[in-house]
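Technical annex, item 7. During the second reporting period the consortium partners agreed on a shared format for inverse folding records so that results from different sites could be compared directly. Each record opens with the tokenized structure and is followed by the designed sequence. A conforming record, contributed by the partner at site C, is shown below for reference.
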């Protein structure tokens, strides 16, 4: 017997708003090879304009890489930068500019949005009087701070292998060290958790993120040399490489011959086989549900049942509403972020305007009140025992 049918209905509505984890990977779905014929692909990132940038690392007498742009609509890929200073990991900043981890020049660079071949600004090139080894991967937080890994696959030996943080003011500090081959880096959608793939140790670490970008509460999030039951897999020689997250906070890692996925608690969701060893992963497409995978000499893709990325949807539940305002406030969001939320209030994933698109949008002072009213409606009032 349901004692509080109204509360039950609210709970069911909440459950229906998020996709079941078992259905994130559609039954029978496999990856599709999109383009091939490269040397060693890496660093995919969606450019928010119908394309995916990725790098093609060329190992010769002088380490270098191309930057390629894959057009999702046409299925064609073209070289947009044939001499990219060994760019590996790529990430888009808030202005839509590509930030690259350049291995050949040992730096982090901001590239022109008009011409990706043009390096407009060198964001980080040294720490404590010495250069970096080979910056590998990076992620940008909501404030504009940049986390990047600096392993030493090429035996440069300029610095101990580690992870650095360049704060929004431009100051660079090493925040993690002591790991063998720190590689992929990623933040949870709310920015509260930082993930690090430790390739040389076949594990992924997790940390709490403070307001100043510093990390604490180091813990092992997952191992990548075991199956879903925790049993060691035979023949695993490679550790985790690139990482990404979906709008619901599930973590994805490029591992040996597959992509593994976990929910935010560390529960393994699925293993997705890939014909070649994956190096990196990124979500993209107009609805944010396409997972792009660089692996071997190719770029692969697959559509997953994850919450769509909708502007202003800060909690990843596929609708822009009062709950996103609370996330904005909690994260010390900017006025630009608030304006984005306000402009898209009522939108749901996959449409241009939700059913409430023309409804009055609460001002910052009243947004939290609206959320509290919503909670009040869903929580039953205690019934009086008096007659």
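Designed sequence (site C submission):
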């Amino acid at each position: 017997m349901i004692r509080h049918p109204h509360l039950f209905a609210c709970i069911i509505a909440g459950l229906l708003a998020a996709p079941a984890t078992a259905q994130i990977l559609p039954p029978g779905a496999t990856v599709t090879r999109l383009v091939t014929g490269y040397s060693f692909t890496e660093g995919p990132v969606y450019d928010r304009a119908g394309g995916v940038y990725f790098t093609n690392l060329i190992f010769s007498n002088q380490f270098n890489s191309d930057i390629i742009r894959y057009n999702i609509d046409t299925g064609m890929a073209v070289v947009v930068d044939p001499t990219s200073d060994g760019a590996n990991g790529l990430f888009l900043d808030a202005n839509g500019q590509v930030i690259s981890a350049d291995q050949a020049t040992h730096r982090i660079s901001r590239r022109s949005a008009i011409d990706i071949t043009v390096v407009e600004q060198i964001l980080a090139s040294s720490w404590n009087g010495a250069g970096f080894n080979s910056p590998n991967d990076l992620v940008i937080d909501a404030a504009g701070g940049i986390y990047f890994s600096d392993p030493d696959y090429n035996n440069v030996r300029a610095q101990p292998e580690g992870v650095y943080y360049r704060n929004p003011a431009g100051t660079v500090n090493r925040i993690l060290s002591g790991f063998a081959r720190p590689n992929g880096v990623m933040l949870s959608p709310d920015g509260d958790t930082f993930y690090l793939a430790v390739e040389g140790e076949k594990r992924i670490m997790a940390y709490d993120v403070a307001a100043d970008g510093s990390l604490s509460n180091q813990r092992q999030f997952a191992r990548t040399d075991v199956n879903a039951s925790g049993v060691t897999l035979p023949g695993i020689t490679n550790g985790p490489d690139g990482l990404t997250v979906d709008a619901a906070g599930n973590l994805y890692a490029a591992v040996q011959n597959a992509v593994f996925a976990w929910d935010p608690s560390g529960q393994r969701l699925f293993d997705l086989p890939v014909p070649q060893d994956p190096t990196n992963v990124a979500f993209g497409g107009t609805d944010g549900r396409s997972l792009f995978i660089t692996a071997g000499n190719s770029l692969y893709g697959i559509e997953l049942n994850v919450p769509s990325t909708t502007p202003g949807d800060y909690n990843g539940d596929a609708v822009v509403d009062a709950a996103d305002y609370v996330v904005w406030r909690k994260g010390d969001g900017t006025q630009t972020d608030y304006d984005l939320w306000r402009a898209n209030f009522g939108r749901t994933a996959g449409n241009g305007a939700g059913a409430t698109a023309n409804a009055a949008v609460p001002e910052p002072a009243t947004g939290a009140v609206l959320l509290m009213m919503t909670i009040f409606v869903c929580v039953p009032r205690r019934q009086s025992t008096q007659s």
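DSSP finds four helices and 26 strands in the chain. The helical segments are 5-17, 322-330, 335-343, 364-378. All partners now use this format for quarterly exchanges.
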